[in-house]
Amino acid sequence: MSTTETIAAGSGLTGALYALLGLGALAAAVLPRLVRRRPLSMPMVFLAAGALSGLLPLPLPDLDPSANRVWVEHITELCVIVSLMGAGLALNRPFGFRSWAGPGRLIGITLPLTVGATAALAWLLLDWPWASALLVGALLAPTDPVLAAEVRVGEPTDEKDDEDEVRFTLTSEAGLNDGLAFPFVLAALALAAAGSTWAEVDWARWVGVDLLAKAAIGVAVGLVLGRLLGRMFFRAETSSLRLSEHMEGFVALAATCLAYGLAELAHGYGFVAVFVTACTVRAAERGHGYHKVLHGFTEQIERLLTAGLLFLLGHYLVSAGFAALTWQMVLVAVALIVVIRPVTGWIAQQGFVTGPRERMVTAIFGLRGIGSLFYLAYALGHHGFEEQARGLWALTAVTVALSVLIHGIGATPAIGHLDRLRTVRPRDAPP
Predict the structure, then answer these.
(1) pLDDT tens digits for range 317-365
(2) Could you state, in order of their start, the residue ranges of all structural domains in the chain?
(3) CA gyration radius for the chain?
(4) What pTM was computed for the model?
């Protein structure tokens, strides 16, 4: 091939990629409105588009997540922290042990039960070492309602109906467990370093440092930074520092990166810090319109990142992921979505103030998403999982894909039914 032909081929590839990016960005802007109130979601469309691209001879680069582990880790990390900022800014409910009892139950009961049950099932069916089985439970436990807009709180508002118990519980659960699943990932890493021998792990250190201290540092960083930023945004004496008057949305990205970076430097959980920072900033001036600006910016960035990642996920599944799947892996994924999460979610809500319909929807719609991909990429950066790496990617990818499809189809009718019931009886009262 001549130099001229090589340059032309390279230009054609570049042009195709940019055209694909532009088309994807336009679709990310249009699709949420087109599929609204239909049993369909934007993530489903991008996942399907990615799967279709895997069947066509398109000029896409190598999408092997094992070979591009570092890239996958950082782009999913960015997507998660941006979504956490958006979730925290959307919540208008003041913190209290009774008012936050719903997410508290899901974090304190459902999360560890889900990790344990999924790990045990993976150990039984996959014949993997306990460390790998525990990693499966840890990385598939976090929820991610961003993949189904109907089951999360919308943009910041003072409307009470926008924060019904189901939407509030699912949104706040995802904001918290994206960070609080980290101790279980670290437990799997420690177990792998000990050769899957439970007695060789320093469990006292895990409880004191990984479970308690790092979470406390994340909360502390979020509270302190959130209060400082809240005071700066809304009550600074100098107008140039009182950013709420200038309505610049990119400040949300600054707050996100600052919270995450400071918490990581302090050896705390950055995911927790970002969510707590967002909630604290919202609490500084709950009714101010600047929250909508900040939330709108994060939602746009989050939508673009999520769309791109799900497109790549669909492509990976068709081009390589399905080939690495076994029926045992599919059974683990299906069991998690249709049995383990609904059962553990239902157990956690026994005696809770909501009615059985609300409890059922909250238990069922624990979506798996981008956080699972991040945790896997992070874990595979450590030793101990080399033999199961290919299977771990395939299992995680198919679990996320199944969750996107099953929950994406069911979210709109389920939440719509609850909304209609709420108009004829007191909000969240038992029928």
Answers:
(1) 998 999 999 999 999 999 999 999 999 999 999 988 888 899 999 999 9
(2) 30-57+70-422
(3) 22
(4) 0.91
